Amino acid sequence: MLDTTRNLVAQQMRQVWIDAKLCIGDGTICRTDLIKAFGISTAQASHDLTAYRTANPQAVEYDLSAKRYRRTKRGKPAYPQHLRLSVANTVRALRIFNEMEENE
Judging by beta carbons within 10 Å of its beta carbon (0-12, 13-18, 19+), is residue 47 exposed, middle or buried? Predict the structure, then answer.
């Protein structure tokens, strides 16, 4: 039961992070971004992107030439800004922490 709850929370965090990634920078995301940020498998990254796209079909489209998902002009964020920022900052902080641990 606890593992199931943890998995659901992790999946939700990745969905919010995908939304945040699409709202900042160049507005694109690919599987590699998720793999690097969360240390998940290629299959899990594909599943997460498909789930996001299914839940938000008008918000994102696949750019075949760039091999990346891109936020559409009509796409609106799926999550509130404070939640997107919180998850994005948490992932960034954990990445920095893990890099520091590796360098010790």
Answer: middle
Is residue 37 within 8 Å of 49, Cβ to Cβ?
no
Q: How many domains does the chain have?
A: 1
Domain containing residue 15: 2-103
CATH code: domain of residue 66: 1.10.10
Q: Output the CA torsion 65→71→75→77 (10° steps).
A: 160
What residue type is 30 in one-letter code?
C
Q: Is the pLDDT of residue 2 over 70?
A: no
Judged by DSSP in three states, 17 sits in helix
pLDDT digits (tens, 9 = 90+) for 29-64: 999 999 999 999 999 999 999 999 999 999 999 999
- Phi/psi region, residue 68 (left: phi>0; alpha: psi -120 to 50; beta: rest), is beta
Say what the pTM is.
0.88
Amino acid at 23: C
For 91, other C-beta atoms within 10 Å of its C-beta total 18
Collapsing DSSP to helix, strand or coil, 90 comes out as helix
